[in-house]
Design goal:
It contains six helices and five strands. It has about 170 residues and is of the alpha+beta class. Strands 1-2-3 form a three-stranded antiparallel beta sheet, sandwiched between helices. It has a two-stranded parallel ribbon with strand order 4-5.
């Protein structure tokens, strides 16, 4: 489960400021957190404000290539077989993670696909207006590890409540 905070709507023109990941397994203790130096001079103050960081703070964050290398290692160490990318808003989160992996490492360990947790829940309950967020236990704080953990909790609850077939290997 992955969550991204950014200073604008798209990668390259704007920057991924931080992201978090949680391996979806019962303990939810395997986490990753990265803070990345901006890749662009562009930034939208209102978008950056969601992350809780100032522009000056982000300029002191780690080089993106080093963060993505650490994340790739973490994925390799904490998954079996091909890792699977899922997030609350994969249209947003996926584009940043995918771009950063390809731009800095030349490949994305997640491959070419992702899944949206909200859409999965809508399908399980057969209601396109349904919302899964009541299944979270961890508060949605806009710290990406908290948000990824809350979404992983919701996915585990869906597995238990609806006998959702997901592998936790």
């Amino acid at each position: 489960m992955v969550d991204v905070e950014a200073d604008g709507p798209i990668p390259a023109d704007y920057s991924m400021i931080s992201f978090g990941a949680v391996a979806v397994e019962p303990s939810l203790t395997k986490t990753f957190y990265g803070q990345l130096k901006p890749v662009s001079e562009n930034w939208i103050p209102e978008a950056l404000a969601v992350s809780g960081f100032s522009r000056e703070e982000t300029l002191a964050f780690d080089e993106p290539k080093a963060v993505m290398e650490r994340f790739a290692r973490w994925i390799s160490e904490n998954s079996h077989g091909r890792p699977y990318f899922i997030s609350d808003n994969n249209g947003f989160d996926w584009q940043f993670i995918n771009w950063y992996f390809h731009h800095f490492l030349g490949e994305n360990p997640f491959g070419h696909s992702s899944s949206n947790l909200g859409s999965l829940y809508k399908g399980v309950v057969k209601d396109v207006f349904a919302n899964f967020k009541h299944l979270r236990k961890t508060a949605h704080t806009h710290h990406p590890v908290d948000d990824a953990r809350g979404n992983a909790e919701a996915l585990l609850q869906m597995k238990a409540e609806f006998a959702l077939k997901i592998s936790l290997k």
